[in-house]
Design brief:
Layout: H1 2-6, H2 11-14, E1 28-31, H3 37-46, E2 51-55, H4 58-70, E3 76-80, E4 93-99, H5 108-117, E5 119-130, E6 136-138, H6 146-157, H7 168-174, E7 179-185, E8 189-190, H8 193-208, H9 210-218, H10 224-238, E9 244-246, E10 249-255
Helix pairs in contact: 8-10
Length: 257
Amino acid sequence: MQRGYVANRDAGGFLPFLLPHVRSGMDVLDVGCGVGSIALDLAATVSPGRIVGIDADPGQVEVAQRSAAERGIENAEFFTSSVYELPFADATFDVVYANAVLMYVREQIRALAEMRRVLRSGGLASVTDDDLGTVVMSPEIPALELGPRLFERAVAHEGGNARYSRRLRTLMLEAGFARTQGVAHAPEVYGDLASTRWFAEFAVGLFSAPEMAKVIVGEGWATQAELDSLLTALHEWGELPDAFAAWLYCGALGWVD
């Protein structure tokens, strides 16, 4: 489910503020690359430089490697690695970015410091994540309000923070970056029947998955009846002619010096 959710992401849609800083010949690192969709989209831009992706999920790394081979992209490499221990020497890359990754980790400053370590002098880091405190859904159906709260609790249950990204300027400074610039955009906007129907089906699949439903009810975040009401409301909302949903991704650019 998660792989399908991120498979079509591209640099223009998710890193518009970083693109003006990326040019041919740069070496770029994608931290938490997933299936490699953004990295592979950037490969032609940085060529003859290289783009390297790391992810903790070997299954997603395998998909990224296979995609690069199938598309004949020779300047992209993908490895399994932790965000806390990047397998590269100091000052290896010109640009490092992480998209929708650090909200899931316990120690954001530690991860940011590791990203800074592998940047060359004058290097740039770009970090963005969903801020689920900014979710808007219309029409306003009371049963739908439970959805964002459940996802926030699920992220926190795993040690993450679904609202941390609004503080990224501060966190990057604390991690040792010399200066930072805050950014925000809304790459996920659902405002027509095809997209609201898809998003509703995705959310229903997420919250009705046996392991997720077990945690939701078992931890007391919602009763089974409340969860069932959410799933029904999502199905109905996705088919409405005026349904709309969106939220911000907040983040920051950080320079080494």
